[in-house]
Amino acid sequence: MAAACALIVLLTIALVVNFRNTRELHNNAMWVAHTRAVLDTLEEVNSHLREAEALQRTFVLMGDETILPAFEQNIKEAQDAARRVQESTADTPDQRGRLPDVIERIDELAAWWRGTISVRQAQGLEVATQRIRTGNEQEQMADVQQLLLQADVAGRELLGQRSIEAERTYSLAQAASVLAGIASLAGVLAFLLLMQRRLKERDAAARTVAEFGERLRTTLASIGDAVISTDNAGCITNMNPVAEALTGWSRQEAFGHPLDTVFKIVNENTREPVPNPATRALKQGVIVELANHTSLITKDGTERSIEDSAAPIRCKAGETVGAVLVFRDVTERRKLERELQQQLASARLLASIVESSDDAIISKSLNGTIQSWNAAAEKIFGYPAEEAIGRPITMVIPEERITEEVETIPARCQAERTADFDTGSCRNCERELRDRRNL
Prior knowledge:
Number of helices: 16
Radius of gyration: 36 Å
Strand content: 5-15%
Number of strands: 9
Shape: elongated
């Protein structure tokens, strides 16, 4: 009887303990799922910001107005996702204090991008490019990503803590079940039933983890930028399809190779090798941006102009366990920039030739209005440029030859070549031009 009572007491205690542990395990699983959802949303914020940045730069280069709705949509989705994270982290003081800064920085970055778009629309590619070159967009973007990275690291640390708590609760449940089995054969059945229940919960948790991992791999594969991750020794552990396409290496071929073997970069101008940013990120534990004018040499020897950055990967203890390298192909953009620079240089050269010429060089519109007037024209005809530009060309043509000028207008309007004609000697008509000017 006493043994039975003891057994009943032991089973009751075991049942009570198991009930409490089951409830805690359920709560922990909910918190773990909640934390994973927050991490997914943080990744969504970063993804939309990257997409918005790419669309903004594409618009600056191309001026295609159809890009703007997608740009605005990505900004809105990034802001909405950041606010969802803020609402979801009300239970975490550290995250709750960080998210307002993230939202504020996103708003500032969006305002800067919209300003650049407005400049491109109103003043053209050169002014917008200059704004990008001299602005602090990269610093703002780096600040936002740093805050997101901090939030992500904090979230992963919280996820690790909650996972440990869930494992602890599960271990307690197992211990109670074993104790009940040892106390009595009658407890074996209860123990088996409880174990079966726990195993189902464990399988469900494992499926959740597997689904999360698959979702993470899918996200990595769908990112528009090339992504390569390494271990702490700098050997490649993963790369997405974009990275495969840009480097010419498949993920299976690159796996385990040193990053420098697959990711070979040189300076476009000096042809000197460029230090790998991922190596510095591993050594110093900081985010590293790649220097300008960098080319990637692919597996088949093709060169691509790229931009990239590298960041360390840290475990929950804060130890650096690897690095992630993110880069993109900017070959076409660099080509457009070089062509633009050549066009500007040609235009400046032509302007200097015209201005330094000893001959009068005057340009006019199709209807005969003076549009440019060099120093030699000012010296010969006596009119300063500010008085001549905007006036009819007939001001420097003798009256008896004005008809010839008028007759060539229809041919010029149809882009036809006109026959040469003599407007008369400037020396012979100098006095007449001065008299007309004085009138």
